[in-house]
């Protein structure tokens, strides 16, 4: 293939989004719209990628530079039309040769393969210009591809400039065009703006090529949705659902069981191994990775998480958490960034974790907060334990050793360390380190103030219940004595 340059147009305002965020920066499947387009452009292995920015150029340019540091940025101050935008791109490039592809930044479903195949067709046919066209039922709003009796492409006419007969044409310009660079350079200055919109139409280069006796091709894409642009929020949702449908189906083909594709949302950068099972109501976001035989769901949101082989995650909200092989999480667990659970470990119901490393086989089964902690392998943390990491000013760490057994309703006041094989009593507030193997008890001996309810709560249902029970007990004792 020839040297390839991809120009991505993203200067338009996208006013119909009615958003303070630029249209191409809206996310779909965990990437921005332009992020998807840049990924597709990258797959063509181009020499250079040029992005044309205009509206909110600082934000858009910064985002593009983050995703594609090598990209050339061209600024189009005023949106005078696609032809003008491409001219800005060409000027920013300096010199251009080979093949130039033009795409838009708002077509998130576009696949690299389609761009590559189109460029290859264009080059094989040695056309001056090629159009990635589409045959659609409702061509309204699109530029129409006009062909002569022989079927050769003569021109593209925009909706507003078309005659009624031309509007009947159902072959449309998707917007993705391929050019012989040398021809493009010569043609761009020849584009005028004498048309319904008063814009410099890039599409006019088709007629210019024909005037020069050069050939133009139009290659209809079978999957027209790939070239569909997003203009408003309703379209954003529709395209998002379509992209998700494609991603979910792709993973099913790779051996993932998805019980309910309609309620399963998987971002573009998620990675799943065969024999993963996804139950209904699951969102897998960001760069989440799930290993084989893991079962996730129902009702989980996992962002940038790593789930080990055979792990089980139920009704869990997790972000930046690593779950070991064969571990159990949920239901109703909240895994905050920095949570690491070892192989075969457990984070149970109503447990919140943050910056917590929980060792292999270690368990935090019930109703706990574990923040800024390290828990050794095989240790069991009792129900209702709070790792008190915050003194109101600073955060501190707690370390619990291996094979420790801490009892229910404990508070570990950080910084504090509980040794290997140590234990605690119920309700212990651990303020000082517990040596290995020791039992820590902090609550005092229990005292029972007999008859307290009768004297202090006289006349209440509590006192009545106590009175009744004491009377029953006396009767019972009397009966025993008489028999
Ligand atoms: C354009 C095509 C039309 C095609 C349609 C496909 C032209 C003249 N028309 O029409 O044939 O069927 O796309 O969707 O090319 N942009 C800039 N700077 C500008 C103008 C536009 O960067 O000065 C960018 C926009 O941000 C957008 C893209 O180019 O991403 C298309 O612009 P838009 O105005 O939407 O073109 P259409 O009228 O839809
Ligand atoms: Ca458009």
UniProtKB/TrEMBL annotation:
The active site is at 366 (proton acceptor). Acetyl-CoA binds at residues 383, 389-390, 408, 426. Its EC number is 2.7.7.23, 2.3.1.157. Residues 255-483 are annotated as: N-acetyltransferase. Keywords: Acyltransferase, Cell shape, Cell wall biogenesis/degradation, Cytoplasm, Magnesium, Metal-binding, Multifunctional enzyme, Nucleotidyltransferase, Peptidoglycan synthesis, Repeat, Transferase. Its cofactor is Mg(2+). Pathway: Bacterial outer membrane biogenesis; LPS lipid A biosynthesis; Nucleotide-sugar biosynthesis; UDP-N-acetyl-alpha-D-glucosamine biosynthesis; UDP-N-acetyl-alpha-D-glucosamine from N-acetyl-alpha-D-glucosamine 1-phosphate: step 1/1; Nucleotide-sugar biosynthesis; UDP-N-acetyl-alpha-D-glucosamine biosynthesis; N-acetyl-alpha-D-glucosamine 1-phosphate from alpha-D-glucosamine 6-phosphate (route II): step 2/2. Catalyzes the last two sequential reactions in the de novo biosynthetic pathway for UDP-N-acetylglucosamine (UDP-GlcNAc). The C-terminal domain catalyzes the transfer of acetyl group from acetyl coenzyme A to glucosamine-1-phosphate (GlcN-1-P) to produce N-acetylglucosamine-1-phosphate (GlcNAc-1-P), which is converted into UDP-GlcNAc by the transfer of uridine 5-monophosphate (from uridine 5-triphosphate), a reaction catalyzed by the N-terminal domain. This is Bifunctional protein GlmU. It comes from Nocardioides aquiterrae. The lineage of its organism: Bacteria, Bacillati, Actinomycetota, Actinomycetes, Propionibacteriales. The gene is glmU.
């Amino acid at each position: 293939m020839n040297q390839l340059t991809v120009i991505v147009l993203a200067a338009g305002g996208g006013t119909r989004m009615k958003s303070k965020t630029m249209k191409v920066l809206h996310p779909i499947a965990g990437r921005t719209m332009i992020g998807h387009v840049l990924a597709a452009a990258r797959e063509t292995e181009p020499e250079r990628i040029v992005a044309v920015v205009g509206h909110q150029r600082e934000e858009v340019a910064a985002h593009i530079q983050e995703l594609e540091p090598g990209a050339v940025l061209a600024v189009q101050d005023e949106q005078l039309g696609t032809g003008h935008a491409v001219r800005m791109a060409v000027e920013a490039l300096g010199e251009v040769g080979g093949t130039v592809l033009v795409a838009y930044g708002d077509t998130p479903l576009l696949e690299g393969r389609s761009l590559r195949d189109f460029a290859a067709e264009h080059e094989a046919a040695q056309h001056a210009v090629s159009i990635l066209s589409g045959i659609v039922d409702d061509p309204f709003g699109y530029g129409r591809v006009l062909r002569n009796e022989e079927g050769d492409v003569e021109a593209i006419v925009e909706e507003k400039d078309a005659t009624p007969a031309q509007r009947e044409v159902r072959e449309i310009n998707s917007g993705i065009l391929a050019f012989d660079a040398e021809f493009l350079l010569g043609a761009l200055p020849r584009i005028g703006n004498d048309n319904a919109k008063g814009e410099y139409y890039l599409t006019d280069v088709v007629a210019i090529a024909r005037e020069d006796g050069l050939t133009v091709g139009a290659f209809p894409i079978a999957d027209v949705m790939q070239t569909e642009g997003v203009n408003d929020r309703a379209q954003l949702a529709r395209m998002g659902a379509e992209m998700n449908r494609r991603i979910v189906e792709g993973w099913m083909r790779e051996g993932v069981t998805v019980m309910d594709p309609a309620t399963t949302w998987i971002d573009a950068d998620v990675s799943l191994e065969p024999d993963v099972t996804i139950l209904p109501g699951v969102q897998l976001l960001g760069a989440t990775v799930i290993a084989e035989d893991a079962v996730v769901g129902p009702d989980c949101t996992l962002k940038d998480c790593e789930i080990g082989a055979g792990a089980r995650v139920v009704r869990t909200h997790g972000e930046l958490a690593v779950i070991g092989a064969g571990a159990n999480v949920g239901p109703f667990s909240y895994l905050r960034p920095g949570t690491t659970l070892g192989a075969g470990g457990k984070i149970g119901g109503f447990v919140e974790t943050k910056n917590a490393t929980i060792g292999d086989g270690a368990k935090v089964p019930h109703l706990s907060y574990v923040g800024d902690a390290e828990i050794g392998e095989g240790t069991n943390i009792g129900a209702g334990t709070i790792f008190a990491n915050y003194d109101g000013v600073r955060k501190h760490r707690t370390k619990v050793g291996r094979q420790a057994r801490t009892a229910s309703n404990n508070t570990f006041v950080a910084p504090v360390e509980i040794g290997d094989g140590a234990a605690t009593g119920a309700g212990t507030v651990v303020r000082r380190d517990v040596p290995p193997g020791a039992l820590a008890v902090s609550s005092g001996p229990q005292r029972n103030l007999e008859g307290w309810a009768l004297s202090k709560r006289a006349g209440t249902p509590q006192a009545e219940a106590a009175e009744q029970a004491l009377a029953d007990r006396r009767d019972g004792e009397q009966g025993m004595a008489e028999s």
